Records
---
Amino acid sequence: QQMPAESIETIEVMTNPSAKFNPEGTAGIINIVLKKNRKAGYYGSVSAGIMYADGAKPGGTLGGNISYSNNKIDVNMNIGYRGMSFKGGSLTDRYNLSGIDTLSLLSQNSNTTRAYGGIFFRGGIDYHINDKHTISLSGFGMTGSGGGPSSTHNIFTNYATQTISREYIRDINDNGMRQSMNTSLDYKWDIDKKGSNLMASVSYSGHKRGGTDYIKQTDVLNGVDTVTQNISQTAVGTNKEWLFKVDFTKKFSESSRIEAGWQSTLQQRLSPASAFDSLLNKNIEAYFNKFDYNEQIHAAYLTYGTRFFEKLSVQAGLRAEYFTRSAVNTQNKFENSVWETTIEPIAFKPAFRVFPSVYLSYTLPENNELQLNYTSRINRPRGRQINTFHDYSDSTKISYGDATLSPEYGNSLEFNYLKSWNAHSLSASVYYRSTDQGIEAVQFINNGTMESTYMNLTRSSSSGVELVAKDRLFKIVNLTTSLNLYYYQRDSTSYTNKYEPPVTTIIPARQNFSWNGRMMANIVLGKTTSAQITGEYSAPRLIAQGSETASYSIDLGLRQTFFNRNLSLNFMARDLLNSRKRNSITSGNGFYETSESYFHGRMLGLTVTYNFGNMKPKAGDRKKNDANNVDMNMDGGMD
């Protein structure tokens, strides 16, 4: 939303990215390819909008951007404000078990309102020293806050007598900060006219998340409300990261090239937490936590690609990564009837891993193509998965991370068939994907209270068929349809809680057939009017301790332009049927749980945008790869 559409050549989705790209994540990579426009001039836009989510207050957006180019410099600036409000909630029934007997039932009804607001800005300048050398400086920043009230009504029922044993309401009002910044210095050397180049960059980013939760708990007994807790819990997380990168491409011809490069990432996360009880007028030592985490990733890659007989294209690559990390966890523990502060350094063994990738493509007559590719991937634990901070916002379910988690590793093999006609195209893929040491969220009962954390559990795999069709119908309708059918398997596994006496939970091997589909229709209603309708459906699927039920949704968009498309009016309706909810069934030693939750329901929005300037992109301009490749499985920030 912060890039003018006219500056984007294409958006590439790579499900199996080559060794050149970071193998982090399991879903693939989005690569934004920008047009290289050297025509002098300027281009800009201003926009304003309003957005409303069911049950919440209206929010708004306001922003503007401008780009300027001449024969020596390209400059772009963007600034905006966004304020949004959402309403969510959940319904949970948790049965506490002893063998086959049900002891009690916890019925939980939660309602949450969240409001976020902040200012963001982005800017950059490219200085073209000459036709071969370019140096760039860019930056991004955001500052704002977010939070709101939530209320959870808990009712404990004795299952044998069907009488209420306890009832209380837990109200939380939180107010947190959301600050981010990033700056990058880049250099590019176009070595020859064949396309050989050298690119180098250094960047620094910093993020700050967190704030204070004000927790008030009111017990209801015989019609009398009694405040039993009045706690303020503060947790602020900071994340600092340096990235150094060098990429070299040598093109021998239009069909043959070598790519090599190096990348180093240095990251530090610091997360202190504390709490104060105003009823007791003292600090709550059990809530205290300080988590200091550092990691380094150093990687080198080499790829070679060529073409034989104008039909067979081959690309092979190898990426090697050295991963090292350290952590210090400071906690207060209750031992020998007193609170004791413990400083626990966590030592990790350095890890060296090689990630191969192979791509084969064979061109057949009449716009037919066959592809075969293999890649190796990794998903390292991040954020709340490793942060040992205990979240007591839900007193019936305490959640925390595990700093000793290992990365999960994946392998993907795909065979693709592509066919194109004048108004139609078809992509058919047969794939097999496996994951080892899968990171899963697990739950267990400890002294009547549920605890939730993350563990490396088991090996899983999925094999299936994916179809993607694009069709242009009657010159006014463009359809994009995708269908994914797969068979999912999970090996048997077990996990043990950390308490005395330890209890081991066995999760048997499971498998199921599942599928999901998506259809997007772009409809031309007139010379200046267009519409878009998107429908999605996901069949039931397995999770670590249970399953999630089916889900579906429909989104709608309308656009009307005026004054030679310089002014546009955009309307959108997200989750038109108010159906985008998460329903799950989970079970383990001592519990069986059903849950339904949603973050926000139906959302309506209206945006007005005005474009101005004298710079229009030229057809056939050369493409320039954006250095910022966005991972589809990015961690959203410090939790």
---
Amino acid sequence: MAQSKANVEVETKAESSILEESPMRKRGEFNKLFSPFKIKDYLLRNRIIFAPMSTQMANADGSISDQMLDYYSDKAICGPAMVITETFHVDNEASRFTYVQPSIYHDRFIPGLSNLADGIRKGGSIAIAQIGHAGRQTNYEVNNHQPVAPSRIPDGPTKDCHELTKIEIDDLIRSFADAASRAAIAGFDGIEIHGGNGYLINEFLSPYTNRRNDEYGKNKELFLTRIINAISSRLDDNLILGVRIGFSDFVDGGLEPSEAIRLCSLLPQDKIDYFHTSAGTDESDDYRIQPIYHKRALLRNIARDLKREIQTPVILTGSINSPFLAEELLANEETDLIGMGRPLLADPTIPKKVAKLDAGEFCPCIRCNQGCLSRVRLGKTIKCSVNPQLGHERSKTSLVSMRPNKRNKTVLIAGAGPAGITAALRAKELGFAVKLFEKKEKVGGLLNTAKYEPLKQEMSDYLGYLTTLVSSSGVEIIRSTKVDFSLLREENPDILVNATGSVPIVPSIPKSLPYKVVEVRSILANLEDYFRKQKVVIIGGGSVGCELGYTLSSKCEDVTIVEQESDILLDIESGSALALRRLLEKAGIAIRLNAR
């Protein structure tokens, strides 16, 4: 679907200055980020909120697993003021959006929920339970029920859904209220109603999916209003009630930011303690969890406009993976609180490190969406491309006890790319004597090409983080030295780690050609030499070829991508592919499919 004309600022001069001066090389004070903030009777210790992320860590029946307890407890211990859980689904009919999702539709889940709330609170964070309903964005296989929606639109976004009757809507409102009551009994400090990301409440708010002729169609905020009133009547006055809103569908005919803000103003303000930003639907998936191809803090204008219209506190979430950017947003009064989901997966200790003015040492989220989004959608548990400990929080505590067993043993690592550096750091942490060999002068492997592409700021930050860390770790780094059998015989390590990486497959090229044939890494290492070319043809429409095409398109007259499959970008997750496809279309790059 085409992007709507939403009031979204893609980049400001202030943000540009932050990106130019990488967080990996800068330290500073964070007065706003670490100032307290009061919500009801709760005093937040800082402005950092752990934003909800689906994990697939629950037990198959929806109860809370030990792995899930460890995961959330670890997040709380690391210092955010508030931890908002992933979505608990509110009924046992059509409300799940993943196969393994934590449940809150029955009293039997309260004991596990209580353990979860206790774990978060013991870590020092305020515990908020997010509750929601999938609406149209699920399927029969997940729930063993037909999906439901405000309207059934033949040949439209809800063509496979059952249109909810008024009686069924009343039942759902009770389900939300019952779910909130269970969360309160379990010991959570508050509830967040999930009204974003294209799920059921968002569908009632949006003209794209709500075409009813009754009161719920004429007053699109009514369903959410009645949920808020029903929950508020059940909760003690001291419990927090937050609402997450999808402020733009980013589809033609969908909800626009100005209308979303107007609908928010019609909600019972005296019963809402904060609003939480989100955006996007199934059709605009790249706006829900924005990949590296989008600008940072994409929804900052929306948060700022919302604050101008409504006095209720605002949490801004979405690609805020730099504490310097977070501080700027707060200092400019564009938001009250900062939501960080993926950044606290990449490095849960960011709040603690930044509190100590140690911002140069945090591991940045590279917004690849491979472990946190793609895996979950495949039915796997959440992981992180730059944090191998995610999902293994309990095992982190055993590292110290393992160290004595490794004394005087040596590890030799061949290749100082990201895998080799990570292996070296872990081996050193475990107590090994480590030697890291790199055949080139620079460490970092293919990450070194990232600094030449405008899309890859986070990759460049990650390279800076790794090189800084390994340089100060005590790992012995031997550059410009290739690992071969004679070197291995000489070193005689106890363990060899092969981290030499991969090389691209290059077809045989005839020597007598009227044009130059160059492999992508050579271009990226000498990008200036290939600008201002008249015509460029790129063989391969995967992510590498498409990223290069976009990079060259601003400097070359004519760029064409040739792909032998029926579509491009089949090697990356769907949201990232959608975002990069938008950039290619905007750049006017020609694409030849089913061609060799």
